[in-house]
Amino acid sequence: MMFSRLFENVSRRMLVLLAALLIVLFGAPFFATDYLLTVLILILYFAYIGQAWNIMMGFAGQLSLGHALYVGLGAYTSAALYVHFGIGPWIGLLVAIPIAALAGVFIGYLAFRFKVGGVYFAILTIAVAEFARVGFDHFAWTKGSSGLFLPVAQFTRNDLWLLRGQPVMFYYILLVATVLAFVFCRALLQSRMGYFWLAIREDEEAARSAGIDTFRYKMIAVVISSGMTSFAGVIYAFYYNNLFPEQVFHISRSIEIILGPIVGGVGTLFGPIIGAFLLTGMSETLIAALHAVGLDIPGAKQVFYGICLLLVIMALPDGIWPWLARRLGLSEREK
User: Fold this and answer.
1) What digits encode the pLDDT tens for the residues 14-54?
2) Helix H segments across the chain?
3) Tens digit of pLDDT for each residue in 78-136?
4) 90 contacts 101 by C-beta, under 8 angstroms
5) Those residues with Cβ within 8 angstroms of residue 237's Cβ, 6 or more apart along the chain or in another chain
6) Cα distance between residue 15 and residue 64, in whole Å
7) Which residues pair with 243 in a beta bridge?
8) What is the pTM of this model?
9) Residue 157 CB neighbours (<10 A)
10) Which of 48, 111, 180, 228 could be joined to 52 by an S-S link, Cβ 3.0–4.6 Å?
């Protein structure tokens, strides 16, 4: 009953598109090569994490440029518990989420209580992420700059409980997580809190004058976003099996997180998904093409990201999805 209410205002055309997309994605591993499956895993990873970031920026209007902080906290917490104590990742997730949420509370309280907003809030998120990078670089328990490595073995079967297995297992985990994140974000947007967030995003002073507790609802957005992001960190750790502070917490990782929603359409449900498919898919195709002709151009992916962002800002400042939605004849409420 609740699920049907979430999509009661969605047109038949949209439901058909959603169903077709899900069918294609669920069947993709049966036809994809190993390389294509790896690319699809990256796409789903950025689609999920883009939804999490979108809650803070797209819904509540709070620009975070240090979201790699929550990925790193989730990754290091779950990986360290597994390496040192043999605690499985799903139990570790129950520890990682509160730690990431507390980091979000710390940042949010400093910013919102002392009315640090706009670009200064963004700088604060970068500063805390950089502080974490330097701290973990010297944190012996997580092996510091030498890297934290998870034990790797050849598995004849997929162990879902310990997240030990083949890439196809991680693909379906991320696919389910992305679908659930989409439904959850849809529910948030349709809730009373979602309307409060949109009011804060459009005009915080007017929202405060209307009686909305802006501090409270901005803090809720930060906590939800940071907690969701930490899950992506857990998957990252157990998929790649190695963690380096310079790699996980670096600001370039935060930029990669936010590019998908920006290109796809900030504040829309499909924006992070469209952006992840376009940016990740096209950038990996570019790198593969360069390797095929024997070229190895440092920074080619970053240059490609910059060009895409520039073109979208110039031609489609609201992102690709709003333009595509109009082309498909979908109403604004179905974005």
Assistant:
1) 778 888 889 999 999 999 999 999 999 999 999 999 999 99
2) 2-6, 12-27, 34-54, 68-85, 89-113, 119-137, 167-190, 192-202, 204-209, 214-240, 245-248, 251-264, 271-292, 300-315, 320-327
3) 999 999 999 999 999 999 999 999 999 999 999 999 888 889 999 999 999 999 999 99
4) no
5) 74, 75, 76, 78, 79, 89, 150, 243
6) 32
7) 148
8) 0.94
9) 9
10) 228
Which residues, at least 6 apart from 229, have a Cβ–Cβ distance to it below 8 Å?
A: 49, 52, 53, 67, 70, 71, 74, 100
Distance between CA atoms of residues 163 and 234, nearest Å: 10
Residue 259's nearest CA partner among 205, 194, 315, 304 is: 304
213, two tokens: 């507790």
Q: Which residue has the tokens 């110039």?
A: 314
Q: Give the per-residue pLDDT at 14.
A: 78
Task: Report the percent of the chain where pLDDT is more than 90.
Answer: 73
Position 1 confidence tier, pLDDT thresholds 50, 70, 90: very low
Looking at the structure of the chain, the number of domains it has is 1
CA 133 to chain centroid, in Å, comes to 19
Q: Is the pLDDT of residue 333 over 60?
A: no
Q: Which amino acid is located at 260 in the chain?
A: G
What span, in angstroms and rounded, lies between the C-alpha atoms of 56 and 44? 19
Q: What are the C-alpha distances in Å from 305 to residues 213, 249, 257?
A: 37, 19, 12
* Domain that includes residue 10, residue range: 2-334
CATH of the domain at 87: 1.10.3470
Residue 239 in 3-state DSSP? helix
